[in-house]
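Checked the freezer inventory, then went back to the computational side. Two predictions to log before the end of the day. The first one is the construct we discussed on Monday; recording sequence and tokens without edits.
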Amino acid sequence: MFRYGPNLSVLNIRRSLIIKFGRRIAESLIAILLIAALISGAVGDWQSLIVIVLIVVFSIALDVVQEQKAENTVEVLRRSVAVTTSVLRDGRPVELAVPEIVPGDVVEFSPGVRLFSTRQRRRRPKLSTI
């Protein structure tokens, strides 16, 4: 665990609101609309300038609010779901939380369990009785 760190697939990366707004303004369609608004203002069409800027600001604000709500929902779900699995560690079955699984642990699967992995799957040798 100390060598590899926790077995987490998604890190919680939350950006500030300023960065979120900046990323939206840098999008090509938004940039084109803002350039069109500047051109409208330069030729004296103040109504078009105001309408375009208001629509862009409203669109960006709505997008950022939705992203913020989605991030909050994901965080609540992540905290509410504690996923554990059975692994063979040092030859003994142990029940562990998924972030505690490290390379070398053999994960045990039972019928009906879904497997999402790109690793090789080891099969148990068939046991026979004489």
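The second is the one RB wanted added to the comparison set:
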Amino acid sequence: MAGRAAGRGLGTDHDRGGRRLLGEGLKLLIDRARPIFPDPVSSAPGLSFPSGHALAATLGAGVLVLLARPALRGRPLPAALAWAGAALLALSVSYTRVALGVHWVSDVVGGMLLGVAVLAVSVLAFKPVRRRRSRATARALSP
């Protein structure tokens, strides 16, 4: 396992942030090989679980919707459409990984679930910050 980590870019300038670290750490821990087909559409190096593409698409789309939340507050239809678009993006990317034959279905499901979990933890972690900011704003605006 350590030999694989050395050749996979861990700790290099390609390693950008927690998503990469978390995804690569799980890949090393689970150590699942990618699917092998006799005549594959595509191939990819490295380990299979979780899908980094599914994780990145889920996180990226989710973060965009979370950043848009202030503009979507009180507007249920646009908010629902934003979340549906984010889900469609994550599902589309995940589908392509399976269709190309470079991941098992469970790899992309794991990547998407991990992305949703990271988003949920992030929202919960920033909840106290938003509360403090709201109170400070209310105090500043009160006469």
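For RB: Confidence is low (pLDDT under 50) at residues 1-15. Helices lie at 2-6, 17-30, 52-72, 76-99, 105-141. Let me know if you want it refolded.
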